[in-house]
Write a structure and sequence with these properties.
Layout lengths: L9 E5 L5 E6 L11 E4 L8 H12 L4 H4 L20 H27 L1 H13 L8 H4 L2 H8 L4 E4 L13 E4 L1 H23 L2 H16 L19
Antiparallel strand pairs: 1-2, 2-3, 4-5
Helix pairs in contact: 3-4, 3-7, 6-7
Length: 237
Amino acid sequence: MQHLSSKIHCSLHRSCDPFVFIYSGGRSTATLNRKPLWITLQRPRPSSSGDRRRDGARERSRKGNSYENKTRRKGRPAHKRSPDDTPLRDGNRDRLIGLLTERATRTLLYYLSETNQHVYHWLIVYIRDNPIPRSGSWDDISGETFLRGLLSQSIQLAQYSVGRDKMYDHFGACGVDPRNLAQRIMEIRTQLASEMIDDLKDIAEENSLLLRETIFSSFSLDHVVDHPLEAEPEESA
């Protein structure tokens, strides 16, 4: 009698899944059949950019992707959009909001310069380190990064220095609440926006007034000049 494993042949059969193989033993002289053995190989990691984006979205889905997704753009809602909008409407919106944020910050600085010098100088340093740029990503231009930096900070210590020795410096220090400053800036920004809306309503009238003044000035005799091709006659000697 021969050994049972002397004539056993192994074969690998591919299944429907390209990453799963079936290992089955062959039939020996003793008609011994082996049950199939499933071997599962680990799938390779996704290499395409689309798969990476989907995996990243799944990882962020636990906290929500409204803040974590850096590529998003805060635009107008879909029901407010129109195919007749100008191509630079979203860019103009970001620039306008950034201008309102900057003007609101300067307005708050003016109030603080008369009431609290410690907070005034602390906010000046923050504006210097975190300016609102004229060009760049939409969140930087609109001032959202500027406000988000204030809202994410805890109580800070503000020290107003007058350039004297500590022995003669009696100003001391105080705590600054950046979140409160951000809320005050947003409230002032809302007020400035309402004022700007009232001022912008007069744009059509100002355009008509400018055209009318230009037309009236063109009929004035002071603006009448000789034709450049008509040469003056030479005086006889």
